[in-house]
Amino acid sequence: MRKPRYGLGAGAVAASIILAACQGGGAGNSTSGSSSTPSTSAGPSNSLKIGLVTDVGTLDDKNFNQFSWEGAKKGAADIGAPAPKSVVTTASADYAKNIKSFVDQKFDIIVTVGFALGNDTTKAAKANPGIKFIGVDQGVCVTEQGEPDPSFGCKGDGAKLLPNYQGLVFKEAQPGYLAGIVAGSISKSGHIAAIGGTKVVPAVANYMAGYANGAAKVNPNVKVELQYVSDQPDAKAFNDPAGGKAFAEQLLAKNKDVDVLFQVAGKTGNGVLQAACNANIHAIGVDVDQHLSTPESAKCIVTSAEKKLTKAVSDAIKRVSEKTDKGGTVPLDITTDSIGLAPFYDFQNLITPEIQTRIDDAMKGLKDGSVDPCKPMKCS
């Protein structure tokens, strides 16, 4: 039987982030596919109109949608623009329609949130060269004609073909590596694991490779289980918490001494976190601060491998305002302060001075290039 690795008091959750947004008219006529929300601002000195289209979900999801929205609000405030507006997507079939709602109203900057909106954002950017598009977690992969490339050959030069589209992508191996440093340091058994949604999504595989490499840096003899929920980027991979919980339970049943579990599977991964908590082992979240986004699992989440979404979006908006934006894929990493580890909260006592030094040294090495998070295990 696994012994508890956190105290009963470790479940205290930091205050949830609440969006302070006025309710009112949205970006376009109301439809069954969206709901719209304006932010608040006073005394705009910049005329740029900014709109944000969420992925399916809610604006206050404590995840990609919310932190990207916070970035849109901060970016607008920083450049003195009117408060941004949002369209909340309720069905994936409405992506294109929701983007078009802002196009029709002649918005100057349209932010779209999440990998899934990439194709529709690419098409809109090509059709509307006078509008600036910012895609969160979207690499610009196009054919030589500037169309979305379903084969991911990416033979077209996105920077030249779509100079109005910034595709913000993160070097996931870096925060994965930092998570591995933590996992390898706090593991008592020397046996850790990570569960990803699917290997065919490079971001997932890169998180996992970085994690394995970071752990091996701390303990060359560490055993790392890397398993994927699905062969495809489907609902099973990223939108099935119950399935993720069952998958993690099976992994833990077969590997009884695993004592740290990293999830890289979206909402499916939320079930992985629940399984870790139920097994009384440590967990590590992904993309955002999951101590906040999944408070029901906060009692076992030591930290999260984090993408700084708010900063990424606000910086992209400022580049447009300053006319320094360049189209194509915009790589973001530790050198741009775009990735890192979330706070340790109630687990700060686990992070000894020695472990903190390991983390600091890894961050320094990632910044100056002396540490390659994709070695020895290769990234995608």
Topology of helices and strands:
Blueprint: E1 34-38, E2 50-53, H1 64-79, E3 85-89, H2 95-104, E4 109-113, H3 118-127, E5 132-136, H4 158-161, E6 165-170, H5 173-186, E7 191-198, H6 202-218, E8 223-230, H7 235-238, H8 241-254, E9 260-264, H9 266-278, E10 282-287, H10 290-293, E11 301-307, H11 309-321, E12 328-332, E13 339-341, H12 353-368
Parallel strand pairs: 2-3, 2-4, 4-5, 5-6, 6-12, 7-8, 7-9, 9-10, 10-11
Antiparallel strand pairs: 1-3, 11-13
Description:
The protein is α/β, with parallel strands linked by helices and 380 residues long. It folds into two domains: 34-170 and 311-334, Response regulator (Rossmann fold, 3-Layer(aba) Sandwich); 173-307 and 344-368, Rossmann fold (3-Layer(aba) Sandwich). The chain has helices at residues 64-79, 95-104, 118-127, 158-161, 173-186, 202-218, 235-238, 241-254, 266-278, 290-293, 309-321, 353-368; strands at residues 34-38, 50-53, 85-89, 109-113, 132-136, 165-170, 191-198, 223-230, 260-264, 282-287, 301-307, 328-332, 339-341. The strands form two sheets. It has a seven-stranded mixed beta sheet, sandwiched between helices. It has a six-stranded mixed beta sheet with strand order 8-7-9-10-11-13, with helices on both faces. It is globular, with a radius of gyration of 21 Å.
